Amino acid sequence: MTALPMPVLTAEQAAHGLTRSAPRADLAQGADLVQSIDWAAVAPPAVVAVAALFVLVAELFLAERHKGLLGVCSAAALALAGLTLVPLVGEDRATFCLTSGTHACSYVADTFTLTVQLLVLGGAFVTALLSMTVVRRDRLPAGEFWFLLLSSAAGAALLPAARDLATLVVALEVASLPAFALVGLRRGERLSSEAALKFFLSSVVATAVMLLGVSFVYAATGSMHLSTVAEALPGTDSRLSTLAATGVALTMVGFAFKTAAAPFHFWVPDTYVGAPVPVAAYLSVIGKAAGFSGLILVAVRAFPSYADAWGPALAVLAALTMSVGNLGALRQRTDRAHGAVRLLAWSSVGQAGYLLVPLAAAGYADEPDRAVGTTLAYALMYAVVNLGAFAVVAAVRPSGADGRLDDFRGLARTRPVAAAALAFFLLCLAGLPPGVVGLFAKVAVFQSAVDAGLGWLAVVMALNVVVALVYYLTWTALLFRPAADQGRTAEPLPARPRLSAPLTATLALTGALALATSGAPQLVLRFTTAALF
């Protein structure tokens, strides 16, 4: 190893008391700028990202008949990533921090981060189980599918830990870009290509708006870190106040698109219909979780000084989103092609409106932590039952059928277990017993609006819950109604495929979780309320 050259001291330097130890002090000061990475903190997204690369390479060496192993490896990697959350429970760990000044960090693994990562990784694991049969049955390219799914999940797991605007945007795009390809993965199908193109163009516009907003915020505050931005915004120079306000508005509009909030929801129905059923389920849960976690971080963490502006704006968005979503679902006919997935798509828009209610209430609260916890509780409930509903749709949808709601007519006779599971999931989404967890979550959201003084929003929510009962109960009734009740001779349907082991495991897992949370729904709220910043 080459030794560092020792400096030669001049007489002038010696007169001023300089010694040869000065260069070592400079080296020590420079060494402080090099920090170690907390690998335990970054393990959840890192494990998924490494697994994505492994699957991409392994696919090259596997014969076609063995490519089903890629799905098993992907599910195992997601389960392993979920286990890496356990050592982090009860700790607040940070890495990639500044070494001077405010010592702000770009990656923080706190309770909020772990809660959202649990939702993302758990939802991605269920999606992986749901996808194994569909990938084989629909002959999707296995290597590409599993690589894209893991890549998107890695970005979604990174996003709640991001504590600067640059990392937030990068994580959101890492979660979104593979999703475009997943939507269009059914090659040769017009609906799939159109859905992918619409999703891509809409998302690109939203990303451009978000980046413009981030650049304005950076120009006004001189920082990307959320904590520093929060401190700098109230003291922004009056000449930059308009620039700062515009940046805040544009940044939140970009995240509102990712949550499928109206009027930025127009891509949802066609995208869900054109995508493979597991991809639609993934977008409805993990994609929404990524968008809402980003919206929570920028609103509550970075822009609290603008709460008097974004609070009312989110309240209006919540009312508009739930109304548009529920009215769109109400218009779906039972004989319409792809009606089941389309109804779930509009339902997800309506559910996004309910998720926005506690965030709007956070703008009126001195301590927004409880409102954030309510949003997370509702998101966890929604993730379990919505993935379960999509699992039933994927399990009982005949090969070659167009997925009409009428295809589920009389399902209780041919598939009693699947019909009971779907009925329970729909009742949870509607907020009716025995789906107690759905009722409890809606009451908690309603209470957050009342506590914040948003009585008008609570009334709008109550009306929308009544509207949603119509289409949820209509679909539930179809499950137990004989085909003869249609008033016409029923057309013979293709034989329904037998339930595979992965689909059976998906239904069993989501059903067990829904039953467990319905038995003790208050535990979910207590768990998520602890997700303090």
Helix content: 55-70%
**What is the string of SSEs from the N terminus onward?**
HHHHEEHHHHHHHHHHHHHHHHH
Shape: globular
Helical region count? 21
Beta fraction: under 5%
Structural class estimated from helices and strands: mainly alpha
Low-confidence stretches: 1-32, 485-494
Tell me the major beta sheet.
2 strands, antiparallel
Q: What is the alpha-carbon Rg in Å?
A: 25 Å
Global mean pLDDT: 85
Assembly form of the protein: single chain
Compute the separation of the termini in Å: 47 Å
Strand numbers in spatial order across the main sheet: 1-2
Number of strands: 2
Structure description:
Helix content is 69%, strand content 2%. It is globular, with a radius of gyration of 25 Å. Helix 3 packs antiparallel against helix 4, helix 14 runs antiparallel to helix 15 and helix 18 packs across helix 20. The protein has 21 helices and two strands. The two termini are 47 Å apart. The chain has a domain of 231 residues. The protein has a two-stranded antiparallel ribbon. With 533 residues, it is mainly alpha-helical. It is a multi-pass membrane protein. It comes from Streptomyces qinglanensis. Its main location: membrane. One of its GO terms (molecular function) is quinone binding. NDH-1 is composed of 14 different subunits. Subunits NuoA, H, J, K, L, M, N constitute the membrane sector of the complex.
